[in-house]
Amino acid sequence: MLLIISLCLFAVSPALFFPVQEACTKGRNKLLLISFDGFRWDYDRDVDTPNLDRMAQDGITATYVTPPYITITSPSHFSLLTGRYIENHGVIHNIWFNTTTQEKKQYYKAQFVDDYWDNGSLPIWITAQRQEKNHSTFSKDPFGGLKTGSLHFPATAATYQNETVQVREVESQFYDYTNETDWRVNVDKVMGDWFKTQDLDFVSLYFGEPDQTGHKYGPESPERRDAVRKVDRTVGYIRDTAQKHGLADRLNIIITADHGMTTVLKGNTIKPIILSQIPGFSFRDIKFQLLDYGPNGMLLPKEGMLEKVYNVLKGAHPNLHVYKKEDMPARLHYSNHPRILPLILYADPGYIINGLFPVQTSKGEHGFDNQALDMKAFFRAVGPDFHKNRVVGPFETVNVYPLMCHLLGIKPEINDGSLDNTRHLLVSGGQQCDSKEADQISVVTGLAAVVGFLVVVFIIVSSYNVFKRKRSDVRCDPKAKHEDDVDLKKTAL
């Protein structure tokens, strides 16, 4: 009997027939990248956020993530999409500008300047659309690239090497980013239409809060805390809607932000930075300037005036840092691009840079050194490929791109991140399945289970037949029965 039980256990366990396979990422799950603009790493600490807390229990929480310098919207988001530092992808500011014509285009209009974005670095949408998906043999479209979509995400409006995001929606110029009702409409569209009906593989989704509230009222205000509660409700709605459409078990969700926010310092004890009031400085020496956009600025001095302007500004204010572009700290990755102007200025946290006179009224601001703690952003991730209830240490947001490529099963473009910095977030440890190998393993495992079941049936039937023959022989031959009894007694002794 013991032999039969052992054989049965052996038969029903395919793992005993075949080597144990390590978990691996199959690249078959869908992916949603969400950005809540200006959501600082610690915004959920002074607000009750049950949905973000539940997401943390179900997935990954990073202590914080570090955005690239300069810590503003368009450059930071393009780093998420390309995995490149700003000096490498070339979207150096929210403002597009032309130093010859003096023309400037603000954030919204700059979204439509194709050659500003299409500068050699491909966003993940285009890469995914051009590559064959790591498909199952049972996929409906085994030879097509991935299907992507983007709703309101910075860089969505542009064309890259004559190609756009397949499904996209760009907000109107005066769109109200604070409208929670619209947020839910957008979530319904992404989950119900784009993921469920159109079967998209990857979608990026952007929300303009709590950035606007942080600017207007300050990051420590009750209004900002209300904005975080609204974000939390939306996170709950996103996950509930995914569940409603049957997506939860095959959808990875990454939620992060482009930067943090800090309080602008004001009052009689604060010495403002106003370039026109610095002794020896004159705008007559400047050919082009990008100022009055927060804590950073750039200057293009007229020919022969670079050294003069630099020497006048250097050390002119205790909270103003002035660099020639080639001397910028290497850790900031903000010097090696022709669009970056010869003189770069940035202020200490809490200070802003003014040109002729103060024109900025924000109570909260970003754009500071990315090492400042208030510039750090938050990060959550949940889904079938992520560990559950795990807190991880900080990493740079350029690493989100190779992580997303891995989850989608596509080959990344050249980038400045590394999967090595995020593989500990994954159940697979960052091991990518080969699609053919994964299918073969599935088939072999299935066959092993069938064979195991048949072996169990065979053993049971064979044992039963042997038992029947034994009993029949004993009934026909009393002497054999007696000999069997003697054998059993000897065995017992």
TrEMBL record:
Entry keyword annotation includes Transmembrane helix: yes
One Pfam short name: Phosphodiest
Keywords from the UniProt entry: Membrane, Signal, Transmembrane, Transmembrane helix
Cleavable signal peptide: 1-17
Coiled coil: none
Domain of life of the native organism: Eukaryota
Residue ranges crossing the lipid bilayer per the database entry: 441-461
InterPro entries: Alkaline_phosphatase_core_sf, Phosphodiest/P_Trfase
UniProt keyword annotation of Chaperone present: no
Protein name: Ectonucleotide pyrophosphatase/phosphodiesterase family member 7-like
Species: Tachysurus vachellii (Darkbarbel catfish)
